[in-house]
Specification:
Length: about 170
């Protein structure tokens, strides 16, 4: 019932997805990338039902594919992007995209701390990504144990956007 409500509430789009060089999965953190990527080269795949593309939905219905992962695959295929970027490091389906799109560069950015339970969920699933940007060397090692990817330790992507200011106290 909740899903039906979300679908009814979503903005409806009836045109083919725009072809952009970069496709951002999820709109929540997409504004962060506007500092690095020209907005004209960036598309967004809304994953929280903010909008639904009925062009994509109808293509999937004709193919008898009804789940959201199939919707994502078709949307990505139609967008013809070169790069897929996601802050969804805790969503296992993002690591399965490489299987469907070996020619695209997939970049996953860690967005929070992860427990041992999370990494156990990643085990034995043949997961892949081109790059995973992690908080620390510890997380890089953990991701490398479970995902076939090149990990790069960058710290927190969001925190790295904040300019560090050193304030001097009076009298020092």
């Amino acid at each position: 019932m909740k899903l039906l409500y979300k679908i009814l509430k979503a903005k409806k789009i009836f045109t083919k997805p725009e072809q952009k060089k970069f496709l951002i999965l999820d709109s929540i953190n997409s504004v962060i990338f506007e500092k690095y990527i020209n907005k004209d080269e960036m598309g967004i795949l809304h994953t929280r039902y903010e909008s639904l593309n009925f062009f994509v939905l109808l293509k999937n219905i004709f193919k008898l594919k009804f789940n959201f992962f199939d919707y994502m695959i078709e949307f990505i295929r139609l967008s013809n992007c070169k790069f897929i970027i996601s802050f969804y490091d805790n969503n296992i389906s993002v690591y399965k995209l490489k299987e469907y799109f070996p020619e695209k560069k997939i970049i996953i950015i860690q967005n929070g701390t992860r427990s041992e339970f999370f990494f156990k969920r990643l085990s034995k699933k043949n997961l892949k990504s081109d790059f995973i940007l992690t908080f620390s060397n510890f997380y890089s090692e953990k991701f490398n144990e479970h995902v076939n990817a090149h990990t790069i330790t960058i710290g927190s992507f969001k925190n790295n956007l904040v300019i560090k200011k050193i304030l001097k106290m009076k009298g020092q």
